[in-house]
Specification:
This protein has 308 residues and is of the alpha/beta class. The chain has 9 helices and 9 strands. It has a 7-stranded mixed beta sheet with strand order 3-2-1-4-5-9-8, with helices on both faces. A two-stranded antiparallel ribbon has the order 6-7. Helix 7 runs parallel beside helix 8.
């Protein structure tokens, strides 16, 4: 059989049953007491550990089933205005602020010390955005900016370019102004991305997302890419988390053909980004899979660049 065009994006990392659980249950206090009582009996201790693990797995499985069921429901509904708080997609405003502050705290400890996924993400984004700037892109729009750390790095390296980061939270806007307000060619705003794309031109510009689209429904992404094309965007870069679906137990197979999205994890989805880009007139020029240091060994970043 011929090799798939996107075979290099398929994750070959089968998971054991326990690795599909994402929530660690609270230890049963009675099991802990029993362990203290029989601490010197190795046979009894081994039996109690098995019992405790079974208890955790049953609780984790129940919680994960609830979260996945919610993800299936969100995929089926495809609610309008998914970018707005209160839509059931993504996080609430407090959690978005907490995430931005957490990323800033991580950076204060040093990028090289990051043990999950942020370090790899920052390195890749800085490289790709710098390449696009060097090839002539002059304006960059980051939808779901969160913390504008990478935007600030590339803005300082390329003062001839203008960077716009948009998020729906005014609180994260305040954080970004405090951290990066001194950079004249970096603009962080709070608002609706569709209103922005209606009222401003981004001719020959770049729209990019990171850790954002997997929280939103397929219909929203199609609408976003269409609005970007209308506003003059020429290139779209999506760098999004992917992994083994906790719903199907299988990796997602990407294609230029239309195919449905599937649940990934709690409130996260695996979308067919190449097809979504093609549908909006941005055929894929580059795609790659990025290994991370995330504790879940199947976690990767998919990086895909579409261009009109």
């Amino acid at each position: 059989m011929p090799r798939s065009k996107y075979e290099h994006l398929t994750i070959d990392c089968p998971l054991g049953p326990s690795e599909t659980f994402t929530n660690k249950g609270i230890q049963n206090k009675y099991l802990v007491r029993l362990e203290n009582i029989v601490a010197h009996n190795q046979l009894l201790m081994a039996s109690l550990r098995k019992l405790r693990n079974f208890y955790h797995e049953c609780d984790d499985l129940r919680q994960e089933e609830i979260r996945i069921a919610r993800s299936v429901e969100l995929l089926a509904k495809e609610q309008p205005d998914a970018q707005k708080f209160g839509s059931a997609y993504g996080y609430d405003e407090l959690l978005e602020l907490r995430a931005a502050i957490n990323y800033q705290h991580q950076l204060e400890q040093g990028v090289d010390t990051l043990v999950a996924e942020s370090g790899k993400l920052y390195q890749h984004l800085e490289q790709k955005l710098s390449e696009l700037a060097s090839k002539g892109a002059k304006v960059f729009l980051n939808f779901g900016v969160g913390l504008a750390y990478v935007d600030s790095l590339v803005a300082l390296k390329h003062p001839e370019c203008h960077f716009v980061g948009i998020d729906r939270s005014e609180f994260t806007q305040v954080v970004n102004h405090r951290c990066y307000g001194h950079i004249s060619n970096l603009e962080c705003i709070a608002g609706d991305v569709f209103e922005l794309l209606k009222t401003r031109r981004f001719d020959n510009g770049v729209l990019f997302t990171a850790r954002t689209l997997l929280l939103l429904p397929r219909s929203f992404i199609l609408k976003l890419y269409a609005a970007a094309a209308e506003a003059g965007i020429r290139q779209i870069l999506a760098v999004e988390q992917i992994g083994i679906s906790r719903y199907t137990g299988r990796p997602y197979e990407f294609s230029d053909e239309d195919k449905p999205s599937v649940p990934f994890r709690a409130k996260m989805f695996l979308h067919n980004y190449p097809s979504l880009l093609n549908a909006a007139g941005f055929p894929v020029k580059e795609s790659q899979l990025i290994q991370t240091n995330h504790p879940h060994r199947d976690f990767r970043f998919l990086s895909v660049l579409g261009e009109r």
